[in-house]
Amino acid sequence: MRADRLLSILLLLQARGRMTSGDLAERLEVSRRTVYRDLDALSGAGVPVVTDRGRNGGIYLLGGYRTDLTGLTEAELEALLAFGGWGPAADLGLGPQLDQASRKLAVAAGPSRAGRLQGRVLIDGERWFRAAPVPPHLARVQDALWSDRRLRLRYRRDLDRVVDRTVDPYGLVSKAGTRYLQAGVGGQPRVYRVSRIEDVELTDETFQRPPTFDLRSAWAAQVGRFQGGAPERVLVTVRVEPEVSGQFARLVGEQIVDRSDGGVAVLELAACDVAVSLLAAFGRAVEVLEPKDLRERLAEIGRQLSTLYGG
Q1: Residue 184, domain CATH
Q2: Strand partners, 237
Q3: 2, 6, 7, 15: which is closest to 71 by C-alpha?
Q4: Contact 38/2 with Cβ under 8 angstroms?
Q5: Number of domains in the chain
Q6: Distance from C-alpha of 122 to C-alpha of 156, rounded to nearest angstrom
Q7: Which residues contact 145 (CB under 8 A, 6 or more apart)?
Q8: In the chain, which ranges are E strands?
Q9: For 42, how many CA atoms within 13 A lie in the half-sphere containing its CB?
Q10: Is position 39 within any domain?
Q11: Beta strand ranges found along 178-220 (DSSP E)
């Protein structure tokens, strides 16, 4: 609808400040000619839209013009209000701001539209039995992100190795409660798990973020590299004793792809190593029937543990 498109142009110009007709056409999925017709319609309605032609031109709103219109549909508003000011937002110190923003949206929408989804849907992004506290250096990493200042890190690579690094912090990613720092070192992208940072110093040296850097795209590339190097998923057939059936279903229920009588189930797991760490904890109460190499690995682990702890 044209009215939706006009509002989208207005909101895009408010958010971006200046855009080209090509940018607007691409975002709205229309032709440039349609964009110019819509701009004429906005000008006719009293919106101070300025169009500068030429190589360095652009389209912008005169004098910082703004509108109180949000353009949010009822479904969009409810989706925003469903996210409370806790979890990752609270860890970053943004909980009160998110709660306050939600209240303002609710007031702007009116009582008939706000709160319906909040009363029916609760989004909890934390894992069960989460034991890890908020990383102690998260606040300082966040300060560096806001101020574009370099960080000096002492970072634990593994159990016996700690390295010193000076990094340009680009962004933070929270994945299932674990936080990662997306950074640059000598112009090369790097990722650091925040909980492994043992010490951090916020320097006075600033840096310029790469103009083409996009956090979402950079993280997607990192995930792609990680998943691309992982082995293919493995199907594991197990027999589960009745006394641990409930606990087993709670811990691995999402990985069960088939089940049959007698406590036999088929799991789809990310890798054989995942299966070892997951199933060994159940001892003899969960027996791996297939694949054979996984049975052999568990048997070898059992022999090693018997030698270590058997006296």
Answers
A1: 2.30.30
A2: 266, 290
A3: 7
A4: yes
A5: 4
A6: 36
A7: 169, 170, 171, 172
A8: 18-19, 49-52, 58-61, 149-158, 161-175, 178-185, 188-193, 197-206, 234-240, 256-260, 264-269, 286-290
A9: 28
A10: yes
A11: 178-185, 188-193, 197-206
Q: Are residues 206 and 281 in the same domain?
A: no
Q: Output the six-digit token pair for 201.
A: 């110093």
Tokens of 260: 């049959």
Domain range for 98: 73-125
- Phi/psi of residue 215, each to 5°? -60, -45
Spatial contact of 7 and 41, defined as CB atoms under 8 Å apart: no
Of the three residues 208, 228, 248, the one that is the final residue of a domain is 228
Instruction: Please compute the mean of the pLDDT values over residues 113-142 and round it to a whole number.
Output: 69
82 token code pair: 């469903």
Regarding whether 102 and 82 lie in a shared domain, the answer is: yes
Query: Domain check: are 221 and 261 in the same one?
Result: no
CA 27 to mean position of chain CA atoms: 23
- Looking at the fold, whether 173 and 219 belong to one and the same domain comes out as yes
pLDDT attached to residue 104: 64
What pLDDT digit, counting tens, does each position of 54-83 carry? Answer: 777 789 888 767 665 566 666 666 666 665
> Which one-letter amino acid corresponds to residue 59?
I
- Which comes out higher in pLDDT, residue 63 or 40? 40
What's the rounded Cα separation, in Å, for the pair 174 and 194? 10
In the chain, DSSP finds a helix count (H) and a strand count (E) of 11, 12
What is d(CA 85, CA 123) in angstroms, rounded to the nearest whole number? Answer: 11
Hey, what amino acid is at 263? G
Q: How many angstroms from the chain centroid is the CA of residue 245? A: 33
Check if the beta carbon of residue 160 is closer than 8 Å to that of residue 203: no
Maximum C-alpha span of the chain = 90
Identify the burial level of 168 via C-beta atoms within 10 angstroms of its C-beta, where 0-12 means exposed, 13-18 middle and 19 or more buried.
buried
Q: Which tokens belong to 73?
A: 């549909």
pLDDT for res 90: 64
Asked whether the bond before 291 is cis by omega within 30 degrees of 0, the reply is yes
CATH of the domain at 53: 1.10.10.10
Q: 3-state SS string over 70-102? A: CCCCHHHHHHHHCCCCCCHHHHCCCHHHHHHHH
